[in-house]
């Protein structure tokens, strides 16, 4: 109570002082610059010019992904690896009029991501070119602005040279765009850096570095005031430092705040503070900048694994690509939040941003929801994986891109590991690289020291030197987090390991080699950076379930099966991978393993291993592309969480007399018993070697039921009935109340049911959708990896009884009504509201 009262009084005093010092106008504005653009798919000479006629172009709001609007085609140069969707060149233009009253302000345009090879123009002047499609970048608009007049911002995006990615990239300005307005003296871009040097229950030491920029023609004497606000907005610590900044320069200020009785950021209680940075010049507040802060301690130990806030725990993580299913790559916060909610409910506590910098909003969500993030920079270095990928730009751009990546993300408390590469081909020897002299290597890698110094470091290979260079570069910008790479070469002779630069040894797969890690890498922490690559199609089951299918036979061999499906029993995986159960047991039984990031949390567009055309999206996900959990989801929920789990599968619609394998994932029980039409099929229990219960039974129409018992008492029951002919549709929105912001979404699950309300597990009825009111259809999906139906449509076939329609608010408050119709079925309707 005393602490709260003191904080409250301190906060009141601060607000009084701030109100005296602050000017009436906002000293910093971050303006949403997504609305009111025009778009052309195609190239157009002089489209950057102010007088260019764009009235015939399509009007749209950002973020935007033009590829997701296209048709799947075997002829699209992205190939099935890129989702078989179109690329090309596109232009965006936006006209705006800056107020003459802001002529003394500085304006910067920020693009969170443009895929790819973007060039930005203001009033016909090129501001710059950026090849990497996943990086955030910005330009100073101020020198080229016309105050009180029409200004034209134009962006050319070139994603025509394909393939340039091993998965679906999307096309266009697919992340948010911001206009940042500041005074001439302000906190520089990504200009704060807050770290915790010491933390205990009694106190935390918060170290702060602030870069102050002076873009005026005169030197500036300022005060930098830093305040740490708790979740209720009360000041818990503060400090002030005088600072002199030369004209046209930046100055860095170091401060330390003592935080009493700190609240810890943790996966279950992700407590966030806010660091408020104020720059005061001549008694006037000239900038106000906020930074999220999470106070936590962590370490990676060679014997104990991962330790968070003093307690050992496993990282139960998943890898995620950036697409949002039928919404494509276009960023939507609610869509990302939904994915994370589904994963959190499963017991997941970690996200690997594979294999590129994510949208900043994803990291904001991970901060708020409690995920342990591995933030990853590159999928390739100098050696290419596809014909037109980032490798061709790497030598020129890697320092700039890596710098911007670290500076942008380093304040996020959810980030615990930096990954500087994924399965880069530099792991292995290269005859040409091995013949380079150290002088040549020095030139290529742009090291800041001489070849003689490099020689003293042990005659490293060029590939090892590159790994060391990247790691050193990151350490300068953020020495507080460990560095790893996702390696698919477990041999200690791997050049990345030989560099000595990896703080954590990271394996992609290679479970058989993991027990030897402590011997091969003494005193080095270890994590499975990518695991399993188990394959499954939701709703499809291949029996006998105790027979494991490995497909393809070898990574470089084609694979064909007329079903274009993979069994959902956890009995199908790629040759370099494993079943889900295998890796769970391996991690459980080895304390030194910090955890895993499963490949993948959700299915994603592209990379449809093991199949080729017409497959166009992945089979790897624990959750399918539409967001419907596959059966393995409940295995993880049973093993990773304390939530009561009793999941019986598959469905109960088969041929009479057919042998059917029934599986059950469960927890919080000693045993489970199966009944077919009331007749017991036996009692089963999990063992340390088998994490599911299984029965082989004869199918007979009716019902199959599982009963769970603990200490002899029934603690749960699940029953599945044989479904009859499809009769009706059920609509279930994940949210019925939306924000009237033009971006919020409701994901509506569409199910085909019989007359008694049982899901028809093999139904593939075509469902048409009609929307009235303040919503529109943002996308449709069903989770099928081989469907050629468009994602942007008003209809969808059910896939194993289900499909999805995504409703988006129009920006207006009020209601909306969705109606679903299908030939021969009863219609269904559902309402949502927005306010």
Automatic annotation (TrEMBL):
Residues 304-546 form the Glycoside hydrolase family 2 catalytic domain. SUPFAM superfamilies: (Trans)glycosidases, beta-Galactosidase/glucuronidase domain, Galactose-binding domain-like. Residues 657-715 form the DUF4982 domain. Residues 88-182 form the Glycosyl hydrolases family 2 sugar binding domain. It holds the Pfam family DUF4982. Belongs to the glycosyl hydrolase 2 family. It comes from Bacteroides gallinaceum. The lineage of its organism: Bacteria, Pseudomonadati, Bacteroidota, Bacteroidia, Bacteroidales. Transmembrane segments: none annotated. It comes from the Bacteria. Residues 194-296 form the Glycoside hydrolase family 2 immunoglobulin-like beta-sandwich domain. Residues 1-21 form the signal peptide. GO terms for molecular function: hydrolase activity. This is Glycoside hydrolase family 2 TIM barrel-domain containing protein. Residues 729-830 form the Glycoside hydrolase family domain. Keywords: Glycosidase, Hydrolase, Signal.
